[in-house]
Amino acid sequence: MEQATRKAKTAAEQEPAKRNAAGKTRFHLEEGVGCIRMDSPENLNAIDAELAAELLQRLEDCEKDPAVRVILLLGGEKAFSAGGDLGYFGRLIREEHLSEMKNIFTAVGRLALKIKQMEKLVITAVKGAAAGAGANLALSGDFVIAAENAKFIQAFVNLGLATDTGGAYLLSKAIGAARALELCISGRPLSAAEAEQLGLVKLLCPREELEEQAMAFAKSLANGPLLAYANIKKQIFAAAYSDYEHYLSEIELPLQCSGVETADFKEGVMAFLEKRKPAFRGE
Predict the structure, then answer these.
(1) Cβ 183 vs Cβ 271: under 8 Å
(2) Dist. CA 65–CA 1, nearest whole Å
(3) Helix, strand or coil for residue 128?
(4) Strand 129-131 vs strand 122-126: parallel, antiparallel, or unpaired?
(5) Which has fewest Cβ within 10 Å: 18, 120, 149, 186?
(6) Model confidence pLDDT, tens digit, residues 159-182
(7) What angle do CA 152, 40, 105 make, to 5 degrees?
């Protein structure tokens, strides 16, 4: 009887992975931990409007499912996420359809806000590069677990853009305006070790142990007082992020939409695709 119960439980936990097999993400439930994995290896989990919308739907599904107690967001083996899809950006530039990028900026803003607003805790596990929107998606987690080879890159400036996915806001809150400005202006890689020293990363571990340690931490939280966690998260949001939605919709979104119309953005994208150094003109 006990063996049959264990088998039934295992089948029930595996079922969501089969049901959600399509698209750019995968999901499975393990001992109360809802594991969402970005699964678009061909472009290193570049965050386009489709992936952002799919991740948002995953989070909403997890929020409604009482079996999901804590959420763990995972990337790939080579990279957590490479950020924006520059091949797609280049195509929009050539076809003069840059207005379509508003959909991407809107989608990543909703995703960033959802992670902070939802009552359930979200843990991000980062291996390899987390660049641009990928970096800020990772840093949006309530807890960030990083492999020693992880690096967080505010790569937007290399394309002639300001940050999105809440990056400037989150960094300013977490490490102060001066450090946030330096990271966003320089676009330099922030190592996992430095991110840990700055308090952005909770736990640093060997690359091969990342998912095991992240899951162990998630399971420990899943067995805790969930209602207390939810109330604490509401308190932190009210104390630190109460104007986040306004920032995303009234500051970040308009700036990004105007930024993609500049000559510098077009030069930054084309230089990347042509594998050359960009010649920005401040226009």
Answers:
(1) no
(2) 27
(3) coil
(4) unpaired
(5) 18
(6) 999 999 999 999 999 999 999 999
(7) 60
